[in-house]
Design goal:
The complex is a heterodimer of chains A (about 280) and B (about 290).
Chain A: H1 2-13, H2 16-33, H3 50-61, H4 65-73, H5 79-82, H6 86-90, H7 96-129, H8 134-160, H9 167-183, H10 202-207, H11 247-275
Chain B: E1 3-11, E2 17-26, E3 29-35, H1 41-48, E4 56-61, E5 64-65, H2 69-77, E6 79-82, H3 94-104, H4 110-123, H5 139-151, E7 157-161, H6 169-183, E8 187-192, H7 195-201, E9 204-209, E10 212-218, H8 219-224, E11 230-235, E12 244-251, E13 254-260, E14 270-271, H9 276-284
Helix pairs in contact in B: 3-4
The chains are: A mainly alpha (about 280), B alpha/beta (about 290).
Bound molecules: adenosine-5'-triphosphate and magnesium ion.
Chain lengths: ~280, ~290
């Protein structure tokens, strides 16, 4: 498993396309927003303190960039078969489960490196320009509690999905899924958006990191005593998947992300066992 | 390491019976497996490598039952396998690729792993190219990476599936010599449809046809199957109609034919020394 982790990490991080695609994405967002997108100020008070500033960056980081991350991962598991590597790998005494786990963690880690670098870069820039070294500490905490669980889930999905369809088709469906299940407002149509099953960082942001205290009030919301809450959307379907954010719900979201990732990987493992005749 | 195969049958999904009640004992040393396309060679080798489950029958390798999980693991620890179509990771160098496979094979100590890889690169004459990426390698070089990969864990059993296909004559000869040198005290099972590969490397062989064993024994025995049945005949007239023509060489105004048939194919026909190929063809002759 460690060997597979090392080599899969190495092969993925050395792919020129990884750096090109992320580079282009950042270039386009800078061109579109006029700055690096992660330091976008949402117009509230968030920018004034390191914690909410880093939370905003994390929310932005996990809004659209997981699309790039997922698409870059999509060929990694099926590639072994395409390259004709499975026979050699399967005749080694290293078990398939360990190799799958090593590959998963290795390629996910490698593909996340540019995201993590961008995020920590943003934190470092904030720490320097605002004279707030605490931003780095918060960035680390937020990274681990929001970005990592989301990427673990997305990574499992992106590795396993192409077992069932060509990677190109998977990428198209993945983009559609991403907008439907993570971006669109919950009131638009029945969706997993903003629910505990969506790979967004907001449950932790509001439930665990106290982000609600910093948000500016939308005009039609009355501020509850604990600050703005994240939870059910008035008038949306599937609201039972949108409990009110609390520390417990935030931890539940982390658990759900990891459990979903494990379930998807388990299915992938069973799939490879089934296709061996 | 001895391979004992008994009543082995493999039926693929969809009903193709690739192996049909095979009984075979493979002793230590170099052993050839001949058969035409679709004879079942790859199927047999993938079963030995633990990649395919037999439909029925038993396979024991060095006493381990290959159909049981622990037996398979025990065999895989001492197995080197070169698949018919070997894949590699094109973005790794030869050395990195071997290092990765070595780690998967459980060569955990870094110094001894490095030493082993260095030796093997030397054995397969790839030392000068060791740090080049595999995507730039020729077919012959990739085959040599493949054999190096198979040898990493110093296997007692080496299973190589048509390793010489696509190699130029020099590469092929080098490869044969390498395989024979390796045989020594291990079992090397070499499958091929190129008779010459077996003739030059193996003492014993088996011949598969449509999933059944049609011959097993010494190379000389198979050659003798063609004894007194190989003829040469030079004629400027029509080709001999009797028997199976295995060669035709223009000679002067006529053509010199090599024919396998029990009786002389013409008054001027001369008996010829049979080769292993003649023996193989005589064996495969319909209605022999
Ligand atoms: N995965 C598979 N599914 C179904 N049938 C298969 C499969 N693999 C092989 N076969 C069939 O099994 C038979 C034996 O195939 P096998 O690959 O073992 O032959 P072979 O002797 O290795 O041939 P070649 O010299 O062409 O490599 C063939 O009829 C082939 O079509
Ligand atoms: Mg074959």
């Amino acid at each position: 498993m460690i060997a597979t982790f090392r080599y899969e990490f190495r092969m993925q991080i050395r792919r020129p396309v990884l750096w090109i695609v992320y580079g282009l994405t950042f270039a386009v967002t800078v061109a579109g927003f006029g700055h690096t997108y992660l330091d976008l100020n949402l117009g509230g008070d968030e920018g004034r303190e390191p914690r909410p500033a880093m939370i905003v960056s994390a929310i932005l980081l996990t809004s659209l960039l997981p699309i790039v991350y997922g698409c870059l991962l999509a060929d990694r598991l099926v590639r072994d078969r395409r390259l004709g590597m499975t026979d050699v790998l399967d005749t080694t005494p290293a078990g398939r489960t360990g190799r799958l786990a090593g590959k998963y963690l290795g390629v996910c880690a490698a593909t996340a490196v540019p995201l993590v670098l961008a995020y920590l870069g943003r934190a470092a820039a904030y720490a320097v320009t605002e004279g707030e070294p605490a931003a780095l500490g918060w960035a680390a905490v937020i990274l681990v509690t929001t970005v990592v669980p989301a990427l673990l889930f997305v990574g499992a999905l992106a590795l396993a999905g192409p077992l069932l369809m060509p990677p190109l088709l998977f990428r198209v469906l993945f983009v559609v899924y991403w907008f439907w299940g993570n971006i669109i407002p919950a009131t638009m149509m029945p969706t997993l958006s903003h629910s505990i099953l969506s790979a967004n960082s907001q449950y932790v942001a509001y439930g665990l990191l106290g982000f609600g205290h910093y948000r500016e009030l939308p005009p039609n919301v009355i501020l509850p005593p604990g600050g703005i809450v994240y939870g059910p959307w008035p008038g949306a379907a599937l609201n039972f998947l949108r409990p009110e954010a609390s520390p417990a719900v935030a931890l539940l979201w982390i658990g759900v992300m990891i459990a979903l990732a494990a379930a998807v990987l388990l299915l992938a493992r069973l799939h490879t066992a089934r296709t061996e005749s | 390491m001895r391979i004992e195969i008994s009543r082995l049958t493999k039926t693929y999904k969809g009903g193709v019976r690739a192996l049909d009640g095979l009984d075979l004992d493979v002793p230590t040393g170099m052993y050839g497996l001949l058969g035409s396309n679709g004879a079942g060679k790859t199927t047999l080798m993938r079963i030995l490598a633990g990649l395919l489950r037999p439909t029925s029958g038993t396979v024991r390798v060095g006493g381990h039952d290959i159909t049981a999980a622990d037996g398979r693991l025990a065999v895989q620890r001492t197995l080197g396998y070169l698949p018919q179509s070997l894949g590699v990771y094109p973005d790794l160098t030869a050395r990195q690729f071997l290092d990765y496979i070595a780690l998967l094979k459980g060569l955990d100590s870094r110094p001894s792993r490095r030493r082993r890889i260095g030796e093997l690169l030397e054995t397969v004459a790839l030392t000068p190219d060791a740090d080049r990426r595999l995507k730039g390698f020729s077919g012959g070089m990739l085959r040599r990476v493949g054999i190096a990969q198979a040898l990493l864990a110093d296997p007692r059993l080496l299973v190589v599936d048509e390793p010489t296909t696509g190699l130029d004559p020099e590469e092929r000869i080098r490869f044969r010599i390498l395989l024979s040198r390796l045989a020594g005290d291990r079992t090397v099972l070499l499958s091929t449809h190129i008779v010459e590969d077996v003739a030059q490397t193996c003492r014993s062989l088996a011949v598969l046809d449509k999933g059944r064993l049609v011959f097993r024994g010494e190379v000389g025995e198979l050659v003798s199957r063609a004894e007194r049945r190989v003829w040469t005949l030079t004629t400027s007239g029509p080709a001999p109609s009797q028997g199976r023509i295995v060669a035709a060489l223009p000679e002067g105004a006529g053509t010199r034919y090599r024919v396998i048939t029990p009786t002389a194919p013409g008054p001027s026909a001369q008996p010829a020394e049979p080769t292993l190929e003649d023996g193989y063809l005589a064996l495969m002759e319909p209605g022999r």
